[in-house]
Amino acid sequence: MTIKTILYIIFVPFTLLALDSINIQNVFKKNKIFQAKMLYIILTMAISYLAVNFLYDFFELTNLVFQICQIIHLNILF
Questions:
Q1: Sign, CA torsion 34/36/42/45
Q2: Residue 52 and residue 59: Cα distance in Å, rounded?
Q3: I want to staple 28 with a disulfide (CB 3.0 to 4.6 A). Which of 32, 46, 57, 68 is the partner?
Q4: Nearest-CA neighbor of 8 among 48, 58, 40?
Q5: What pLDDT digit, counting tens, does each position of 3-62 carry?
């Protein structure tokens, strides 16, 4: 499994818990339960996607900066 897959497995439940605290039913008309559930699922996937990609890119960038700093440090020593 890749790191992104593991991050998705972690973030989707947390996003569901976070969205569970929002009362989406008040936004929709009566008897529009299916549409409310679809919005709930789409929002969960979208927020999870954004959070996972942000975290993954952040760690990649941090790793790149760390490697550049090591290269610069080695060049200063020689």
A1: negative
A2: 11
A3: 32
A4: 48
A5: 899 999 999 999 999 988 888 777 788 888 888 889 889 999 999 999 999 999 999 999
